[in-house]
Amino acid sequence: MKRLRRFGRYGALGTVNAVLSYVIFVSLALVVSQLMASIITEICMQLFRYYGLGRFVFTGGNAQRPTLLAYFLAVLPGSLVLFLNVAILAQFTPAYITGAISLVVAILYYQVLKRLYRAH
Fold this sequence. Notes:
Radius of gyration: 15 Å
Strand content: under 5%
Oligomer: single chain
Structural class: mainly alpha
Order of helices and strands: HHHH
Mean pLDDT: 77
Distance between the termini: 12 Å
């Protein structure tokens, strides 16, 4: 039950992160290029996620927060897959395929982050 609640908090954090990133991206895209807005948004949202994971998701006594560098190195491959998924695959595949790929990456993120935060 504890793992299910933690996974639910992970999903809630992801939802908040997605909504905030959309608002930030759209706001920034009005004043800078979309590429620059995307880069700024990604950095801001990964920082938000890093702190949110440590304070909201992996909160047990045995959980340890990784360094910011270790966190960014852990999420970099997933971020690249998501970028390629949206930027390239979405042009050739239907939305349910790219959505499924994003969901798989999110679940794999959870497994990687659980180990990174040493939460059992």
